Amino acid sequence: MSQVDLYTLAGSTLFVIGLYAIIVRPHLLHKIIALNVSSAGIFFVFVGIARRVPGPVPDPVPHAMVLTGIVVTVSATAYALALAKRVYTVTGSAELDVSGAGRESQADG
Amino acid sequence: MADTASTSTVPVRVASFALCAGVGVFLARAVLAIPEDEPGVAPLVEAALPYSGVKNPVTAVLLNFRGYDTLLEIAVLVLATIGVLSLAVGRAEVLPRVAERADPVLSALARFLAPVMVLISGYLLWVGEFGPGGAFQAGSVIGAAGVLLALSGHARLSWMSGFALRVMTGVGFVVFLGTAIGSMLASGMLLEYPPGMAKDLIVVIEVWLTLSIGAILISLFLASATPVEELRGRMEEHR
Which of B32, B117, B130, B163 has the most CB atoms around its CB within 10 Å? Predict the structure, then answer.
């Protein structure tokens, strides 16, 4: 297994860990953190891919894409945090209801 | 061990785990199938680098070869800022209170750090022409300096929450879009800079992008300064 394989596999694993937490965790803050973990996984994969070219200089195109991705992740996180804060302000809880019951009691918030 | 109060039910967790494991296996196979020692597009970038106006291939890709990526990126940033600002209520009143309670040690430290951070930001902007650096790195340092100043009570609060900051958040995108449209009128393609002008145009875009990104990061941070209880009270008032 080469170094590139190690990096891209680690990146894929991070992405999957984040994806699992996004689905399973009902707390909005957990979901936002999980989103950031999975984006870090994607950046990992891209940085690994950039290194697969022969020679000492990595491919600049995936690097530029990761830079763009980081900025988009930051802005998405900021907006998600603002929305989560609004949800908490209005309903008093930043947690989504996963029990399947009690939806009526929260509906009028 | 699992804290059942803060996670989903067991069937949901099992199904999600199976789904994620499936995605993981698929991804692992995909990344392992990527051939190594393939030059990809790197030689194309290298061949075109002398015409790009900069010496750092990453900067050349960001602001010249794939300039539309960066244009859309700053558009996303501006949109996110508009979204966050539209959710923020009553932040102007909060900032003086933050300044009042500022830690004196932090306050003294910020006096020394802020000018250094502005200097570092300028360096990062300059170094982006031939090495790792550029508008986004420089802008994030400016943003950090602004947040530090706000938290330590040094910032001109009228400036921090005022109209000027909002203009600054948009100006980078406007300058970039103007350059893109201008170069389209001059050479027929969006973001295809006229020959010989690439370097000057990239420098202009990067300077304004740096200031804009700094202002955007400060806005995103300060917009969420209002405590929840106060936010709740204000939303009741607006109803």
Answer: B117
